[in-house]
Amino acid sequence: MRAYIDTKQFYAPGAGNYLEVYFQFVGYSLKYQGVENGLQSEVTVSLNVLKNDSIIRSDAYLLQSPVMQDSIVDDFYDLRRFALEPGKYVLSVSMQDHLAQGKEIAALQPIVIEDLGKGVSFSDIEVIEYGKKGGEGSPFYRSGYYMLPRLSTFFPEQLSSLPVYFELYHTNTLKDTVCALKQTVVDVATGSELSNLTIFTKINTDEVIPVIRNVDISEVPTGKYALTYTLLSRSMEELCSQSYLFERTNDIEVAWNPDNIVLNPNFQASITDDSTSYFLESLIPISNPAEVRNIISTLKKRDKDAERKHIQAFWSQTAPTNTYDKWMQYKGQVQLVEKLYSNNFQEGFETDRGRVYLQYGAPTTIVSKETSPTEYPYEIWQYNKIGKFSNKRFVFYNPDLVNNAYRLLHSDMIGELKNPSWPLTLSKRNTNNGTVDDPNSNTMDHWGGNSNDLFRQY
Question: Measured between alpha carbons, how far is residue 356 from residues 224, 364, 395 in Å?
């Protein structure tokens, strides 16, 4: 059995703050039984909202899928709402295929309920998988529309739009009767704003304002992005904002013809004949998939002039106003990671530490432990700021012990490797596996083993 869960917070005048819990059940992963006119599955669901280990809200029920026709089964959805006071909670969910009587699926998710009843504020941003007018009586009906939520934050190139729904609260408390809503889409890796998707909209103030937008992402290239809506006063003062993070795959081909590029003498002098391939390949950590394909295609030709021109073309597009200076700055970073992180089978930029350094810059702090008695050698990198994100961390470790090939083990940065059982892996030499529900259950405190404390101190 497979299922996806997501949560969003909203507010209703007179009722207060409430949490919506969305479920998407993967149709083909369930067992079905014959019923009139088709096939049907059943799922048992149990939800508990806990605060300080006490159950505040709970619900348990048997959910029947829609009747499926001709053995063609689709995913199906469910929604539950809980009224909650502002504060920190833990959502506990368990589910089981009732017909198969297989293993129960359980999950815990921390929840923070903001106080949306005070001052101007946003609800969470809900992305819509499918929507239509009408649908009264359905739990998925809101503001005149039937809206099924999209639980995945990944948008492949086949999807050209990102439909969103959110609500604005208490704008009627502002002095003016109108305000502005600003939409931006920012590349998380570079911090650059996609100017063609920056849109300003005038709105009239009210106690609750439902907002539906359809964001055109057809020209958004592969990458990780933050869709942000900001409420502005008449004087353009920022009042509040809300963001939605998503990943995009859209390999827009970056066509370029080396015959049309006139080689800059400075670029020519900055790259010796025996290093053109090396420096061209060093651009891969900061390139999107389409650019990587172009780089590999040029490398296969083994043409040094074409490789120099490709490097120049890359930086002309990346930094059109100060191309040469940006290239020389990056070249210095490549040479630095080569000195610090290369090993006997990898160039510096090919290593995980080198890639992270080139992609995000130098970390704010590095904690290095090469001689922990119970853990593999490891490093914890902490960044005060990466684009719009604050306080992001990376854990690297060296399970081979004999070289400098540290590998990325865990990070809380969006789009990077997330490994909840990283403390167990780090102390694997003397620790048995935990359980699926708690992979770190057998990870004991050992003398000198303080990686978890170091990771959490920032």
Answer: 15, 13, 11
Same domain? For 158 and 222 the reply is: yes
Residue 141 within a domain: no
Average pLDDT over residues 331-354: 95
pTM for this prediction: 0.62
* For range 436-447, the mean pLDDT: 47
SS3 per-residue string spanning the chain = CCEEEEEEEEEECCCEEEEEEEEEECHHHCCCEEECCEEECEEEEEEEEEECCEEEEEEEEEEECCCEECCECCCEEEEEEEECCCEEEEEEEEEEECCCCCCCEEEEEEEEECCCCCCCEECCCEEEEEEEECCCCCCCEECCEEEEECCCCEECCCCCEEEEEEEEECHHHCCCCEEEEEEEEEECCCCCECHHHCEEEEEECCCEEEEEEEEECCCCCCEEEEEEEEEECCCCCEEEEEEEEEEECCCCCCCCCHHHCCCCHHHHHHCCHHHHHHHHHCCHHHCCHHHHHHHHHHHHHCCHHHHHHHHHHHHHHHCCCCHHHHHHHHHHHHHHHHHHHCCCCCCHHHCHHHHHHHHHCCCCEEEEECCCCCCCCEEEEEEEEECCEEEEEEEEECCCCCCCCCEEEEECCCCCCCCCCHHHHHCHHHCCCCCCCCCCCCCCCCCCCCHHHHHHCC
Does residue 76 share a domain with residue 11? Answer: yes
Domain hosting residue 326, numbered range = 258-341
User: Is the same domain home to 230 and 293?
Assistant: no
User: Quick one: pLDDT at residue 64?
Assistant: 95
In a domain, 346, yes or no: no
Do 164 and 285 belong together in one domain?
A: no
- Please give the distance of CA 265 from its chain centroid, rounded to a whole number: 41
Same domain flag for 337 and 370:
no
Instruction: Judge whether 228 and 162 are in contact, CB under 8 Å.
Output: no
CA gap 137, 141 in Å, rounded: 7
Structural domain count of the chain? 4
Domain shared by 109 and 21, yes or no: yes
Average pLDDT, integer, range 341-360: 94
Residue 84 and residue 161 in one domain:
no
Is the residue at 44 inside a domain? yes
| Whether residues 127 and 79 fall in one domain | no
**Domain CATH for 20:** 2.60.40.10
- The string of pLDDT tens digits covering residues 73-87 is 788 999 999 999 999
The verdict on residue 139 lying in a domain is: no
At residue 373, the pLDDT reads 75
pLDDT band at 70 (very low <50, low <70, confident <90, very high): low
